[in-house]
Amino acid sequence: MNRINLNYMKNSVGQSVLRIDARKKVTGEALYSGDLVRPGMLHMKTLFAGRPHARVVSIDTARAMALPGVIAVYTAADVPVNEHGLQWKDQPVLCGPAPRPSTNTAFETPNMGLRVDIVRCEGDRVAVIIAETEAIAAKARDLVLVEYEDLPAVYESAEALKPDAPRVHPERGDSNICVWDKIRKGDVDTAFTQADVIVQAEYHTPYQEHAYLQPEAGLAYLDDEGRITVECAGQWTHVDQELIAHALGLPKEQVRVIYPAIGGAFGGREDISVQIVLALAVMKLKRPVKIIWSRKESILGHGKRHPMTLKTKWGATKDGKLLAAETTVIADAGAYMYTSNKVLGNCTITATGPYFIPNVKEDVIGVYTNNVPTAAFRGFGAPQALWMAELQMDKLAEKLGLDPVEFRHRNALRDGDTLNVGTPAPGRVSIVACIEAARDKFGWSKEPISKAPKHGQSSIVRGRGFACGFKNVGFSFGYQENSWARVELHGKTEIEQAIVWHAGAEVGQGTHTVMAQMAAEALGLPFEKVTMVTSDTATMGNPGSASASRMTFMSGNAIKGAAEAALVRWEAEDRPALAEYTYLAPKTTPFDKETGYAMPNLSYAYAAQAVEVEVDVETGFIKILRVVSADDVGQAINPALVQGQIEGAVVQAEGYALTENLISKNGRILTDQLSTYLIPTVLDIPDAVESVILEIAEPNGPFGARGLGELPFLPLAPAIAAAVHDATGVWINEFPLTPERVLRGLGKI
User: Fold this and answer.
1) What is the CATH number of the domain that holds 246?
2) Which residues touch 359 (CB under 8 Å, ≥6 apart)?
């Protein structure tokens, strides 16, 4: 691990302290959602629709209810306000015959005419069964009789755009388009007439399954104050609380959400899974209820990364300056909105890469289909856009006879350059420094590496590739970013303990540890004197989501503000000293609907990666030998955790690029187990991942920190594709780069 630090060194910040949850997690003392138990606990199972588009004609629960040990079977008729959704409430909690929910002025106006009796994807839920044991609930689930009337369905984005395509959500208009973002910067048509080289291509990116270690699970019960309490893995306690309360028709104060230990999320836990139905059962039965989905249920039941088709045309001058880019992106949103509008907003911004292009035209379109919904996933639209942008850069460099790293360096954004949205990136633009750091650490030379066969294996050739990425930090497009924290200082003459209250989710990234480090830094205390109290809506304000690479940035500023206010009270001898603070980030603006002009984000982070691979041209197998990842994190609060994030992101991106081939046919996921959906194992990971941590302070970040979580994921897939081209001379515009796809690209099958 190399660090390039342009900031001043600090006390606790910048140190690789041990994670505060490490011991409990390695000893098994930490309890995850599936580990939780309570006296008198009942067990729940879910009945999935298992078909892509149908009307639920009737549900007969009599046989299931007659089974000894069955306590209840709940259907759509039992849900008070049968709708939910992070962006649009376009999804029923349970699908089936039920009265339309009545408008309740205490909540948002329901659903715009949402038909709750319509199943729109195979992962829709039709009923939940509660029984004395898990085995009884599973047996009873098979006894529920559901009569369906199958409806015409649409599975391809291009087909869904046709005027005569079946409508997935007719209540929302006369087309399946759910998102359409536009960029109109400069004069693209004129610019292309001035270009000396033009590259046109069509690219495709796949689904990706989150594959977090623990599937969806949770326990709900009534707490000592009679509140419906849901302990379940998620990414935003207070939004989970709001969605549960809305669907049950309850005031928020009657719902409590607590996060236990969480085994990864990667965006896949942003959307509701089991929370509402657990709360529904407790509301009705007044007994604790637990559920654990199987791996198959998890794969069917939560959203995936958006597959996209990206058609594009880029032009440059003979001296290697980008002139114009024109792109159309069609993304499969699946059956419900989830976060497609936000994902595609980020795709729109990153579709020109971290480069200055004076003339840009983009149309980024999201389309409803009867496939599994697509959702937040690490990178949030940027990996798909950068797959296209970075391969366009490589192809232009090849046409111009330029080294691909030099071509990137020549066109990289500098301070003051406008993005495709027509405004400069805020803060310090550090992509040039990332390119130089990755180039130098890798030892990139304008002379290509030797492609000689290794150890006499004439079928194995080697190649190298380079790619860049950038990503927003925090929510965007006019949302007022905010985060709450409370700090308590205890002691007599000296501060003996600081207690930090923050509800932000710990989804494996070490966020609670860096929160404690930032508190210690702000208070001038040893790290050991800080105690964290976390993730409970009953005792804490809104933290915002553990997503958008925002948590360190937002929580750090909130904790810093609360710590400073608490110190003022301490000095005034108001002891114990307590202070709350809500951080409000710099404001952003949404896209102009016709031009895309905006100041959409408050901060960006930048990365560059170089890779070396081997390709077996007889088998199509790709082996990653080495990855150098240079990431500007502003300030590494905990360098060891930063290194872990880089290495983890690289391995997850390797799976996206090479092995994770999710197959959906006619609305049904065929690769619904980890035996058929292949994530990398320890035998597949790169031989070496070398982290270069740049620390170029972000002016608005706490102690100069930017966000990190998504950043190292972004460039790897196009860097691998460039390396495969370097080794074989073949461009492959679609991935994952499975052996079959590589051999097809080589013309061998």
Assistant:
1) 3.90.1170.50
2) 185, 186, 187, 188, 190, 191, 323, 324, 325
Q: What stretches of 186-307 adopt beta strand conformation (E)?
A: 197-205, 217-222, 228-232, 255-258, 289-292
Q: What are phi and psi of 708, to 5 degrees?
A: -135, -35
With CA atoms as reference, report the closest residue to 413 among 421, 427, 424.
Answer: 424
What are the C-alpha distances in Å from 369 to residues 155, 268, 355, 377, 668? 5, 19, 33, 19, 12
Q: Residue 102 above 60 pLDDT?
A: no
722 with 635, same domain: the answer is: yes
Last residue of a domain, one of 278, 301, 324: 301
**Residue-range definition of the domain harbouring residue 499:** 482-584
Q: Give 501's contacts (C-beta < 8 A, 6+ positions apart).
A: 485, 486, 487, 488, 533, 534, 539, 540
Of residues 248, 259, 481, 235, the one with CA closest to residue 338: 235
pLDDT tens-digit series, residues 412-466: 999 999 999 999 999 999 999 999 999 999 999 877 666 655 555 689 999 999 9
From start to end of 288-387, where are the E strands? 289-292, 308-316, 322-334, 359-368
Run of H or E including 348: helix 340-350
The H-or-E segment that residue 419 falls in is none
Amino acid code (one letter) for 412: A
Q: What is the chain's alpha carbon radius of gyration, rounded to the nearest angstrom?
A: 26
Distance CA 439, CA 469 (A): 14
First to last CA, the chain: 42
Residue 87 — pLDDT band, cuts 50, 70, 90? very high
Whose structure tokens read 């404001």?
587
What DSSP character marks residue 475? -
For residue 404, cis peptide bond before it (omega within 30 degrees of 0) = no
The CA-atom distances, in angstroms, between 456 and each of 93, 453, 461 are 60, 6, 11
Among positive and negative, which fits the CA dihedral 232, 238, 244, 245? Answer: positive
**412 — phi, psi (to 5°)?**
-65, 145
Distance of CA 34 to CAs 30, 140, 224, 300, 684, Å? 11, 21, 22, 19, 29
Answer whether 514's CB lies under 8 Å from 638's CB.
yes
Q: 224 exposed, middle or buried (CB, 10 Å; 0-12, 13-18, 19+)?
A: exposed
CA–CA dist 308, 290 (Å, integer): 37
Cβ(370)–Cβ(53) below 8 Å: yes
- Give the residue from 307, 301, 273, 295 showing the smallest Cα distance to 122: 301
Q: Cα(604)–Cα(155) distance, rounded to whole angstroms?
A: 35
Which domain CATH number covers 559?
3.30.365.10
Give the whole-angstrom CA distance, residue 48 versus residue 123: 6
Structure tokens at 145: 């009789």
Domain final residue, candidates 257, 275, 301: 301
* Spatial distance between the Cα atoms of 22 and 501, rounded to a whole number of angstroms: 20
Q: pLDDT tens across 7-33, in order?
A: 655 689 999 999 999 999 999 999 999
Q: Considering the chain, what is the average pLDDT of its residues?
A: 95
- Total domain count for the chain? 3
Read off the pTM.
0.95
Kindly state whether residue 60 falls inside one of the protein's structural domains.
yes
**CB contact set of 74 (below 8 Å; sequence gap of 6+):** 94, 127, 128, 130, 277, 280, 281, 284
What is the full DSSP assignment across 676-742?
Answer: TS----TTTS-SEEEEEEEE---TTSGGG----TTGGGTTHHHHHHHHHHHHHS----BS---HHHH
Same domain, 385 and 251: no
Q: Do residue 573 and residue 618 come from a single domain?
A: no
Residue 490: beta bridge partners? Answer: 497
pLDDT digits 0-9 by tens, 278-318: 999 999 999 999 999 999 999 999 999 999 999 999 999 99
359 and 40 in contact (C-beta within 8 Å)?
Answer: no
Q: Do residues 572 and 640 share a domain?
A: no
Looking at the fold, whether 500 and 385 belong to one and the same domain comes out as no
